[in-house]
Write a structure and sequence with these properties.
298 residues; mainly alpha; MetI-like fold; 70% helix; globular
């Protein structure tokens, strides 16, 4: 009892300051996640509550088999979108950061701020902008194609290229977070490393490959995981640009969760699909940690 009082006297105010955030986290994050897991094993409706299924994993079976197996198509589309966008965002951010790093402080600050502007823009606004660009009649994309003598495309209405069009719009949007974090990481590398390598006769590319890349590996890992989570959870851009789905060619995991949960009110299947998404992100993140983890300190 005395030890508890001593602990409360020493750390009480610390926990008091943390308590509001923890309560908010438990109410709005932890409890919904746990409740969704429970719902994923039930036939659930808002009016009648839940009834446990027999077998209990039936919602997970239905998630892959209902609607002609659309969820399998959604998983494939999500994996394709994620593979392209995560790789391009990390690579483009790395290249842009490497190009602005030799510049002066003011120019670096200017470019970092300019590249970060898209990050403060709503995803809905970005999606609407690209929808206008891809417009089949008066969009900028077809205007540029006509200028070079090519036939206009049905960017968002052709099921063969609709997913590619959405992916391209993400690739062409500057990865603001990657530019800022890579620039900060490169700026924190001691100059002595580059000076020693230069004295040994290493050129700019050699120094970048053997010094810069290994020492920003932890930032690369963080960005890879961050962009992977964001790409697996893509929804706003797809919903705004192609609300009809174009014959399921642009269906993603989250659009399937939305349709099952908020349009068809099949909460059990939607919750099951959500946890499938969670497991996919967890597995991919584990592989990324194993491939990109680094014990280098400087």
């Amino acid at each position: 009892m005395q030890s508890a009082r001593k602990f409360a006297k020493k750390h009480g105010w610390s926990y008091a300051f943390v308590l509001p955030s923890m309560v908010t986290f438990c109410i709005f994050v932890l409890f919904p996640v746990v409740w969704s897991l429970v719902i994923s094993f039930q036939k659930y409706s808002l009016s009648r509550g839940g009834v446990w299924l027999d077998p209990v994993y039936q919602n997970y079976v239905d998630a892959f088999t209902t609607q002609g197996g659309v969820f399998v198509t959604a998983i494939r589309n999500t994996l394709i979108y994620s593979a392209v966008t995560v790789a391009s965002n990390v690579l483009i951010g790395l290249i842009l950061s490497s190009l602005i790093q030799p510049l002066g402080f003011r120019l670096q600050s200017f470019f970092r701020a300019a590249y970060y502007l898209p990050a403060v823009t709503s995803a809905v606004v970005i999606g609407m902008t690209w929808r206008y660009i891809y417009n089949g009649q008066w969009g900028l994309a077809n205007y540029l194609l006509e200028k070079v003598g090519l036939e206009p495309l049905r960017w968002l209405s052709n099921p063969d290229i609709a997913l590619g069009s959405i992916t391209l719009s993400t690739v062409l949007t500057i990865p603001a977070t990657a530019v800022v974090l890579f620039s900060a990481a490169m700026g924190s590398i001691p100059k002595e490393y580059y000076e020693a390598a230069e004295l040994d006769g290493a050129g700019p590319i050699r120094r970048w490959w053997n010094i810069t890349l290994p020492l920003i590996k932890s930032v690369t890992l963080y960005l890879a995981v961050l962009y992977t989570i964001a790409s697996f959870e893509v929804f706003e851009k797809v919903f705004v640009m192609v609300p009809s789905g174009v014959a399921n060619s642009t269906q993603t995991i989250v659009t399937q969760v939305y349709q099952n949960g908020f349009q068809q009110f099949n909460y059990g299947v939607a919750a099951a699909q959500g946890f499938v998404l969670f497991l996919m992100i967890a597995v991919v993140s584990v592989f990324q940690f194993r491939a990109l983890r680094s014990d280098v300190e400087y």
